[in-house]
Structure formats: structure tokens, C-alpha cells
């Protein structure tokens, strides 16, 4: 059983990883002041691994960078060859900081290359 699991893991490793980088800043909506220590989380689905996520905190200047390695494995052919055609279609993003209302949004893959700016409003 263990050997079969290891062989399956090695077979899936044949597919290249697609690197996606999401970066930007988190600021206060009232005055544009950078917000340090805000949590920025990206979530996505992969066929082989299921739900994945990566989390980072913003720096003192409100900046963040999330590096995502998406597994392109999408299945096997009848001949047993790996098919590596899966694509990251979108990311679910969440931005949170104590004392502020959270932001949750879905970012399409096409929008990932643009710097993101999140403006958090004080919680009511």
C-alpha cells in the first residue's frame, strides 16, 4: 500500500508546476495609510491535492507577496500517461486585520499579474 502511494506521488510529480505570484498592498480606507500585519490568504483547488492555500502577513509598508505553485496534473490517459493540462482559473482571496472588516473576493487568473490594492474599512 505504501509503495503504491509513493509510486502515485512520483507519477504526479512528472507534471510541471505553474508558478503564480500575487502581490500588492493593504491600506486603511479612510486615509490610505499602509496596514502592517494584515493577513492575506489565497485559496484554490487542485485535482490531485484538493483545496490548497497560502497565507502571508503584510509588511510595515502594507506590502505582501503570495507565491503559488499550482499543480498542472489533470489525470491519466488510458495508456497510463499523466495529463498535465490543468490550469489555475481563479484564486479566492481573503484580507483580514483585527479592528477592520474583512475583504473576500475572487480574482480571475488574468488579473493576477496586476498589483492588488485592498482598502480595509474600520469594523462597525
List the helices and strands and how they pair.
Blueprint: H1 2-12, E1 17-28, E2 39-46, E3 50-57, E4 63-71, E5 75-76, E6 82-83, E7 90-96, E8 103-108, E9 116-120
Parallel strand pairs: 1-9
Antiparallel strand pairs: 1-4, 2-3, 2-7, 5-6, 7-8
Radius of gyration: 18 Å
Instruction: Report how far apart the termini are.
Output: 54 Å
Sheet with most strands: strand arrangement: 3-2-7-8
User: At the third CATH level, what is the topology name?
Assistant: Immunoglobulin-like
Largest sheet data = 4 strands, antiparallel
CATH superfamily: Carboxypeptidase-like, regulatory domain
Task: Give the count of structural domains.
Answer: 1
In percent, how helical is the residue content?
under 10%
User: What would you call the structural class?
Assistant: mainly beta
- Uncertain regions spanning at least 5 consecutive residues: 1-7
Q: Under the CATH scheme, which class?
A: Mainly Beta
Treating each run of at least 4 consecutive H or I residues as one helix, how many helices? 1
Global outline = elongated
Roughly what is the average pLDDT, rounded to an integer? Answer: 90
Strand content: over 45%
